UniProtKB/TrEMBL annotation:
It comes from Pukyongiella litopenaei. PROSITE patterns: ABC_TRANSPORTER_1, ABC_TRANSPORTER_2. One of its GO terms (cellular component) is ATP-binding cassette (ABC) transporter complex, substrate-binding subunit-containing. This is sn-glycerol-3-phosphate ABC transporter ATP-binding protein UgpC. Belongs to the ABC transporter superfamily. It comes from the Bacteria. SMART domains: AAA. Keywords: ATP-binding, Cell inner membrane, Cell membrane, Membrane, Nucleotide-binding, Plasmid, Transport. The gene is ugpC.
Amino acid sequence: MSYMQISGIRKTFGTFEALRGIDIDIAKREFVVLLGPSGCGKSTLLRMIAGLEDIDAGDLVIDGERMNDVKASKRGISMVFQSYALYPHKTVRQNMEFGLKVARQPKEERQKRIADAAEILQITPLLDRTPRELSGGQRQRVAIGRAIVREPKVFLFDEPLSNLDASLRLQMRVELARLHKELQATMVYVTHDQVEAMTLADKIVVMRDGVIEQTGAPLDIYRNPVNAFVAGFIGSPSMNLLKARVTAAEGRRVTVDACGIDTEVEVDAPPAVGTEVTLGLRPEHLEPVLEPAAGDTMLDVLACERLGGVSFALTRMPDGQDLTLQLDGNLPTTAGDRLSCRARPGEAHLFNAETGARY
Ligand code: ATP
């Protein structure tokens, strides 16, 4: 039995359907990430769980209780916002204490909870400062501390790290993972950051245009995207999605050609020879051929991003399609070069060219 059930949830703003039937089962202590492009409805769903937005249709059940008509403050949920939403004139301690006072917690209990949360978040020395006297990362910790002291059944996070710079984001990501373990709490986390989703989630829910495209463990989604949208959305840099044609088929194994790059793919429902398909090849599953043979497809290198350990070459195929390859960082490849490549066997994905569904 799941701890939190979201079933058939819908939301309409005027005539615009922001959520069109959302179903998610969340286990106790699970870390669920809602991931999707801007405007897909992630924040709206989170706000409905929090009680900040009415639920037009469907049910929200937490720990066996239907929450649709329960007031936000009575749901046992704490939400951490992107903007932190701290009271600027209150100290860190007062910010953390405020919700507990409203909930009429006795003073001793309030102090104990604040001390415990401050300890966990390593902000004890900051308790008497105001938000103005804190760095972005410290403010974020205070916002999380304010959620922790309320000892909620469920934590909600709305892009909590998006205002932080890259190195702080990494640090906070690690801290959030530790916090999740330490608090053993159920968490629902909205982001459009791939890395946050892949590293923090027990389960990722990929959304688009108010519907769920796929739900699953991060690596399952990465390895077995159900359609071309999910395939292109999960992974950075994105999977190459190429126009291709089936040139041979034997049982479940088909050979596919994309402008001279051949690969074999095993699929559940093989399309017939001659079918136009979308071939999915991740940049890391392409290998450069530095000394190509006559007749090999040549790629023009448009740009090469050198990250150190690896480089990403953005290339153009003879038919005008773009193809990104991951290269060893030691290769001197640069814009203007030409190279050929091979798809690593067994790593390709095949999608219906019209519907995008996986074969
Ligand atoms: P982002 O990543 O940009 O925050 P999101 O996936 O969180 O996007 P939502 O904020 O949930 O998206 O919005 C979903 C859709 O609903 C958007 O098209 C948005 O314009 C619309 N929307 C959200 N709130 C309202 C509102 N109060 N009135 C009208 N439309 C709204």
